[in-house]
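Example for tutorial group B:
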């Protein structure tokens, strides 16, 4: 099972909560999202999302750790690394 974590730039055209100037000189949010990939025949399923301001860094370790923690909490215990059966 693969958990894919990626940043997504979401543009806003008004003063939404936490919307700021982005690195692309636009205005909006830069959330991190985590998807579980179910293989070639399956589709990705959103398991976690962390809303961040538009100027949030792409490689902010604390945000990636939080997104990973939230995503792994959604997986059944039997699929987590080191799980005891």
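The residue assignment follows.
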């Amino acid at each position: 099972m693969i958990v894919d974590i990626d940043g997504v730039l979401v543009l806003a055209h008004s003063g939404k909560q936490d919307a700021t100037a982005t690195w692309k000189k636009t205005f909006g949010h830069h959330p991190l999202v985590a998807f579980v990939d179910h293989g070639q025949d399956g589709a990705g399923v959103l398991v976690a999302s962390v809303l961040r301001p538009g100027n949030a860094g792409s490689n902010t370790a604390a945000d990636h750790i939080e997104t990973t923690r939230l995503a792994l909490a959604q997986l059944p215990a039997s699929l987590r690394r080191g799980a005891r059966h």
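The mean pLDDT is 81. Compare this with the pattern of hydrophobic and polar residues in the output above.
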